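Morning F.,

Quick status update on the modeling queue. The single chain you submitted on Monday has been processed. Sequence for confirmation:
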Amino acid sequence: MSSTDPAARKKAKRPRAAPMQILATTEAAIRAMVYLAMAGPGKRVSGEEICQKQEITPALLIKSLRPFVRNGLVATVRGVGGGFGLAKPAESITLLEIIEAVQGPLVFNECLLKSDNCERVASCPVHPVWREIRENTEKTLSLWTLSDLARSGRARSSLSGGSVTSSG
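Structure tokens below.
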């Protein structure tokens, strides 16, 4: 194809995908969910407080918590005394569940989405490696619950003399 070919130009301008990346919305969701877990069972926290303490914009907070409200992991109450709270125990919500609720399943390569996506799946020497990386990552993320992260956040907060503002 020549450089004047419209298809070639369009393909050349396309930004590269960022595989294996935690999106900003997911990062905000993790921070907000950990903050809710740190508040304790049955407690509600205002959106304003979460935004301030976790350095999240209101728009990003709403966008990041929407999947959890829809899936019944976060309860919301409007009005005076309202706010956000966990609808399930913190020990039953995993880091993997949070990530997948926001960004979908972990994808390290397109061939892992569906086996029929790749014609070379049977002969590709790298396919088993991608699968193993995904399985090990899912296993690790499944081991960490909001309860674990909240406990770690409280410990870090007490050491630094402040509140937890990052999941990194």
